[in-house]
């Protein structure tokens, strides 16, 4: 397999809004030149990024505190249950005797590799997945230790809270929407941008003045956004995204641009 487009073209990774703006402008320039295939490709890329921005807003809403006080109560109760299980495992040797500490440490390292706090700080959508994994490990891989340490009531409590929490959160955001989904969509959008460059070069491949001028005109929006990103990086500031319609700066994109 040969080099990918990302390896062939040294482009910055564009935030979603900047990429959408770039494709919209190139689509207009392509239509003016009757390059309908190129224009259609760019318009499809615009639609892709618009959908990505919509999904990102949905996930951001889910990460914020939804207008459901019960979710907040359940989240706090789940955090307390996780913390209690973690503390019991940490202090098992002192409370129950040295023979209990080794299996308790094994459970703790398996279920809480980064500590309990790392779980409690996760956005709610991601926390649902991780807490379910915790419950599965406690039920399947560490059942004997759970029983020996007297953790059964805590695990039962955690399971009940989690079930109610997951059901309530389902009404707040799509259950299958994750940050990984957005990263994958952004990567696909960047590939579309690289394909745009390849299409322009394929349409005007020669070193003549006419082809050079055509390439420069069609890719001018890309050059404009690349320069804006470069200027931000020169001052060691994270490149911000923009609204693709107004060009107004928006919040910093979750995946800051960097050279491909």
Structure description:
It is a single chain. This protein has 260 residues and is mainly alpha-helical. It folds into two domains: 12-62 and 177-251, no CATH class; 69-170, no CATH class. Helices cover 71% and strands 3% of the residues. The chain is built from 13 helices and two strands, in the order αααααααααααααββ. It has helices at 5-8, 16-32, 36-63, 69-90, 92-96, 101-111, 116-120, 124-141, 143-148, 152-170, 179-203, 209-218, 220-234; strands spanning 240-242, 249-252. The protein has a two-stranded antiparallel ribbon with strand order 1-2. A hairpin with a 6-residue loop joins strand 1 (240-242) and strand 2. Residues 252-260 have low confidence and may be disordered.
**Helix percent band:** over 70%
Uncertain runs: 252-260
Beta-strand proportion: under 5%
Give the termini separation. Answer: 19 Å
Query: Helix-strand pattern, N to C?
Result: HHHHHHHHHHHHHEE
3D shape? elongated
